[in-house]
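Hi team, as promised in this morning's meeting, here are the two structures we talked about. I've kept the exact order from the run log so nobody has to guess. The first one is mostly here for context; it's the second one we should focus on when we meet again. Sequence first, then the predicted structure tokens.
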Amino acid sequence: MKTSLRFLSAILAVGFFGTAQAQIVTTGKINFTGNIRHVTCSLTSDSVNQTIAFGYVSPAAFGTPTVVGSTVGEKPFAIKIEGCTLGAVPGGSGAQYPTQALVRFYGSNVNTTSGNLNLTGPGTPASGVQIRLKNSSRVAMALQNATAQAQSSTVITLLGSPSVNTLDFFAEYIATSATVTGGGAGSTVDFEMVYP
């Protein structure tokens, strides 16, 4: 309540004392974006929060001396969706339910140059290494890009309910420096489902 009153008092003071001064007007623009889509798919419970364990990896696994770009410890993981409805949307509008799905990865740990994930620990992070994600064809993904398509995400054609739709991916360590030091080698990344 006090905040509202102070704000109102400030407005009135400007109104009384500022009438003789020229007003300065600054303009701007707000863009609103979004999509309205008929989507019935939902993530399976085991896809919402996953942990992929690399275990212990020696710095020597990247070569002696370290070979920049060498990879170690490829691990598969999957994101699954279920309950998808296919075909025409009810209501006679002619709209169709989506027939494909992709995943877009994003977050503060994405390296904006390499598109890999920076290490965050636990403890002091290892250096000279990042985590690289690959799609189902084992093509390196470019997570610094804004869309799932530009990231080279896995694309699937949806199967209707009760089928479970699986999007396969791989994760691996990649040496980004000629010197790899030991430390925590974990990271996190957020994701969202995309239905083009």
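And here is the second protein, the one for discussion:
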Amino acid sequence: MMGSTASCNHASATDAAQAAISSASSRVQSAYGEVLGAEEAGANVSTLLSKLNACTSLLSQAYTSYRAGNSTEALSLAEQCNASLRGIEADAESSRDDAVSDSRQKILASSETSAVAIIAIVVLSMLGWRFFKKWSADRFTRLKPEGRADEPR
């Protein structure tokens, strides 16, 4: 009877380890997608990638332990990986949101600068035209007509 309980516990530990590894594997793929999204939004993801690489190392160790028959260690490593992934997913989402917000701020600042520049160009062009118009009118009125060649002197 005791042998059957140990066999049942081993089967239970094996199933738990397999489920934890499977969950960690899918979450690692999902986390890579989150980090990619953050990078595409313009976030600096180097820290996230190094954390994610550490997770994949834990997952790899969990696979190795599971295949070696050490379900308890495999379960522990897979759970560590899952715990680390929670932080990575949250950080990736936060980084993506910050990058999107920064991008919007830059676009807004650029639009404001462009609007001010356009207004300045229009105002300076109008002032320049008025100055040129007045200058040219004064210049033309100061010109004395020269006599024509066919007129008697």
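Starting points for discussion:
The CA atoms of residues 21 and 65 lie 11 Å apart.
The two ends are 142 Å apart (CA to CA).
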